[in-house]
Amino acid sequence: MEHKYVEVGVGPVSFADVVAVARDGAAVRLAPEALTAIDRARGVVEELAASATPAYGVSTGFGALATRHIAPELRTQLQRSLVRSHAAGSGPEVEREVVRGLMLLRLSTLATGHTGVRRETAELLAGLLTNGITPVVYEYGSLGCSGDLAPLAHCALALMGEGDVRGADGNLAPAADALAAAGLAPVELAEKEGLALINGTDGMLGMLVLAITDLRRLLRTADIAAAMSVEAQLATDRVFAPELQALRPHPGQADAAANLVALLADSGVVASHRGPDCNRVQDAYSLRCSPQVHGAGRDTVEHAAVVAGRELASAVDNPVVVFDGSRDGRLESNGNFHGAPVAYVLDFLAIVAADVASISERRTDRFLDKSRNHGLPPFLADDPGVDSGHMIAQYTQAAIVSELKRLANPASVDSIPSSAMQEDHVSMGWSAARKLRRSVDGLTQVVAIEILTAARALDIRAPLEPSPATAAVVRRLRDAGIAGPGPDRHLSPEIATAVSLVHSGEVLAAAASVIGELR
């Protein structure tokens, strides 16, 4: 089978490129124009290396040690020492998709021709990705300023043939052995290269791109969950009408409401209480305001996507090679490695995950309370008192939502000085990204439990018929082995199956098979 390749040029990689390499294991190659740009910038660095004038990162130490001039015979040792000393991560091993994402994004910056690395160094990084060699990176070590230093240093260490990696089969191996088995030779880093390999926001940015990808799917899936809850709790769909949404023209709100209208179309359950005998005046906020909450989440995700797009188009390094239209380049220090723009939106998205999960849990809870569920049995139990139904599934949701509220506390408002006060303000963007991954996972579980509970309630409403779209979702759950209403059974496996269907996008696909792609 032929590899799927992502070609890295001088321009930005796309969200789809990041997902393809990080999650799908796509191979990578450098475009010819990228190699030309890399060679051009390398020429500038080599001229500076030969000069008697000190240049930061080329012939000096780093951070607070930048005043030390390094003699030419010590400069390869300088680069090795930089990488070895900065590969100081600790804690649990970071996920493969995160490491592959940050490697791709570092390669993308190298390809811009602003870092000054040699082409063989960039090509080796591409070779690791193509051969599925993933350096072992650890949870702790990045302050999100001067780049994701420790995580990137562990990747640079592998290019030197040092440290541990995981092969395409997932097995742990020394980097030197894995490189040799793939026919790759380690590099001896030259001037500026160690610094260029570790001085970027690539880890936090890769996690941001993956989180945006997941949240776009999850917010549409949350609309499905909300529609099923509105339907099974005998609420009205009239509040989702486009003329009402137009009075408050937030685009995300309009999209969420349009999804709810489409999902509830032709529902026999909704039609059963639409007549003049219905005495319901207004539904609870968790039902009626679903488009407002889900829509605000959408708009925040799209703001984060704008920021991510700008960062993907950036060349983050310090110092950088700049040309200003002239043929003679120069090396300039800068502060573009500061992760604040990325860190802020990572924190924003943790708020989205917490609040969308919160409203989902509230909708689920209404199913279980006989005073609020409009004729359904307590806790949707088969024989209430003997059976507990979905009582504890809501406990699980509540525990996750409580955790998500803690994770919504922003990391980016914290800062701790480092490097003898030279690096006296940092972004904590890596930390924001790490907690966002937990938040996205928590939201997936909460939405899945709502869908699981709503499906049970819709079955109990029989012989009333749900809408074709929500019926397709219920059918997908049943086809996956989740049984309909009945006496209590081991619930955890059913929750796990529902989580898998939400995570994979199969719930979304089931609804889309009836009404087309959701907005």
UniProtKB/TrEMBL annotation:
Coiled coil start-end: none
Cellular localization per UniProt: Cytoplasm
Keywords: Histidine metabolism, Lyase
Catalytic activity: L-histidine = trans-urocanate + NH4(+)
Pathway listed: Amino-acid degradation; L-histidine degradation into L-glutamate; N-formimidoyl-L-glutamate from L-histidine: step 1/3
Database matches in SUPFAM superfamilies: L-aspartase-like (SSF48557)
Main location: cytoplasm
Enzyme category, top tier: lyase
EC number(s) reported in the record: 4.3.1.3
MF-aspect GO terms: histidine ammonia-lyase activity
CDD domains: PAL-HAL
PROSITE patterns, per the entry: PAL_HISTIDASE
Family, per entry: Belongs to the PAL/histidase family.
Protein name per Swiss-Prot or TrEMBL: Histidine ammonia-lyase
The organism's taxonomic lineage, starting at the top: Bacteria, Bacillati, Actinomycetota, Actinomycetes, Propionibacteriales
